[in-house]
Amino acid sequence: MNKIEHIGIAVKNLSKSVPLYEMLLNTSCYKTEIVASEHVNTAFLKTGENKIELLEATDEDSLIAKFLEKKGEGIHHIAFAVDNLLEEMERLKAGGFVLLNEVPKKGADNKMVCFVHPKDTNGVLIELCQEIKWV
């Protein structure tokens, strides 16, 4: 794993949370994106090399909606950038980690992603991210 790619924060309302984080971080939201497969709207902010992803549920049955219901707004996951997502997935599986998806899937911000089950990581949901390179 190369670095923390971003920290994901579950929020109830992007229209209220984006201005709050823009003020807090003294930066503008550089991108919003709907990830239909995950039933989530996202907003990204960057300060220096650090990125924050705000996540708003678009469906009451989505994982983010369930997270918000159970835990409230707050840190949802930590994402790490990797050079080779498939190799990293194999390495973690060989080490006994449970992956929440068997194959990489398209995530937000031009990334292929895979999640590691939080029961194997002391309760922290870990996302592995690899930039999609267009040829």
Automatic annotation (TrEMBL):
Residues 3-131 form the VOC domain. One of its GO terms (molecular function) is metal ion binding. It comes from the Bacteria. Keywords: Isomerase, Metal-binding. InterPro entries: Glyas_Bleomycin-R_OHBP_Dase, MeMalonyl-CoA_epimerase, MMCE/EMCE_epimerase, VOC_core. CDD domains: MMCE. One of its GO terms (biological process) is L-methylmalonyl-CoA metabolic process. It is an enzyme of class 5 (isomerase). It holds the Pfam family Glyoxalase_4. The keyword Metal-binding applies. Its EC number is 5.1.99.1. The keyword Isomerase applies. Belongs to the methylmalonyl-CoA epimerase family. This is Methylmalonyl-CoA epimerase. It comes from Pedobacter petrophilus. The lineage of its organism: Bacteria, Pseudomonadati, Bacteroidota, Sphingobacteriia, Sphingobacteriales.
